[in-house]
Amino acid sequence: MSKFPITRETLAQVAPKLAALSEEVLFGDIWQRSELSPRDRSLITVSALVALSRTEQLPYHLQLAEKNGLSGSEITELITHLAFYSGWPTAASALAVFAQLTLE
């Protein structure tokens, strides 16, 4: 992972327009649409991040997934399931991030 994690605050300093789009469009519109629950959106988002090996984004979205109702065992199962679709290394990397969050 990066030594300089991008948070909402640092994103706003580095790329104000991208931060505004994230707040207004992604989290203000897309995540608020009623067609999928926040829990379902978290399942989809974490799955995509795992499959694409986007480990820098995983900590935030794993924590959000738990806030949106996913249990630790469900997240572990999601990652285990993806090992067979996105590859063993992507799953192992995601489990390392998840383990670090849960053991802190």
Q: Can you describe what's shown?
A:
The protein has a domain at 36-103: AhpD-like (Up-down Bundle). 71% of the residues lie in helices and 0% in strands. It has helices at 8-14, 16-27, 38-51, 58-67, 72-86, 88-103. Residues 16-99 form the Carboxymuconolactone decarboxylase-like domain. One of its GO terms (molecular function) is peroxiredoxin activity. This is Carboxymuconolactone decarboxylase.
State the name of the first-level CATH class of the domain at 36-103. Mainly Alpha
CATH topology heading of the domain at 36-103 = AhpD-like
Number of strands: 0
What is the first-to-last residue Cα distance? 16 Å
Rg for CA atoms: 14 Å
Tally of contiguous helical segments: 6
GO molecular function: peroxiredoxin activity
Protein name: Carboxymuconolactone decarboxylase
InterPro entries: 4CMD/NDH-1_regulator, AhpD-like, CMD-like
Domain Carboxymuconolactone decarboxylase-like: 16-99
Task: Give the gist of this structure.
This protein is mainly α.
